[in-house]
Description:
Blueprint: H1 2-7, H2 9-12, H3 14-17, H4 26-31, H5 33-76, H6 82-112, H7 118-145, H8 151-167, H9 187-207, H10 210-217, H11 222-245, H12 252-269, H13 276-290, H14 293-304, H15 309-336, H16 342-365, H17 369-374
Amino acid sequence: xxxxxxxxxxxxxxxxxxxxxxxxxxxxxxxxxxxxxxxxxxxxxxxxxxxxxxxxxxxxxxxxxxxxxxxxxxxxxxxxxxxxxxxxxxxxxxxxxxxxxxxxxxxxxxxxxxxxxxxxxxxxxxxxxxxxxxxxxxxxxxxxxxxxxxxxxxxxxxxxxxxxxxxxxxxxxxxxxxxxxxxxxxxxxxxxxxxxxxxxxxxxxxxxxxxxxxxxxxxxxxxxxxxxxxxxxxxxxxxxxxxxxxxxxxxxxxxxxxxxxxxxxxxxxxxxxxxxxxxxxxxxxxxxxxxxxxxxxxxxxxxxxxxxxxxxxxxxxxxxxxxxxxxxxxxxxxxxxxxxxxxxxxxxxxxxxxxxxxxxxxxxxxxxxxxxxxxx
Length: 376
């Protein structure tokens, strides 16, 4: 949950950064997300190598230190002005990106080792991360309104330090395989990583553009656009909780293979719906369809490759961040420079979702049957 809070802290402060003492314009603010995304991808790539030396608890510790460093840079930026403040914000987003890449890789793998119900535990880990992400705008809004917003990153830094202290001396119940992973990338890992990348594009098409599609392209009120975005995240979170609790009864391999078809159907339907209620409902359906694709990909991949868990975590988190970053950039480019409306982009995104369905099915088929049973 702390990782979710930290990762969305800068986006939630967009309005504040446009005013004094920062005075950051839209292009400069957008540039802050480049090191955030690249840092997360780099950390996810380095996590397997670091895990072989220090274990995933060690990776978690490095991620926590990176987050604390970024939060301290953000707090210090209040006391300076101009370019110095902006440079500190770049340090902040770089460090928070690294923290996310290390911590999210570690959290998913360590969660899979907590009990025999790995799918449930990994899904709940993603629920809590997502909860922190969705609550950040509300919390930071309350702090900004009272003029005490630097207090929130200070609270987060202290909380991260507390987790670091609690992690000292912790060894997972199930030891991570100590041998060197094979040099060649397993076919199953390539498929699960490809599924994570395609999923990230689809999720970003919903979450990053819901308000714009409803408010700008469909000319409904801003409140309706915000309701569509809130409906997406609420549906995604609640469905994750429900399916995590029902993981004994709904096989992960079935949900992982079927839900991408629901994503594709939602992309096809959204351009056809033209009333506020239908549009909000469409994004709610998108949240339901996206809900467990990534956590189930992670859990199934862990079960299929138990001797290569460190690399599984790093590859899937790296693929997730690459898909998110590329998807947001590509859609923005198509919309602003090529003049293509979101309705047409959503129709094309349905093809991406169908590709996700095919890759998901191939990933499941590439996994041993015994592994698929163990992941449920």
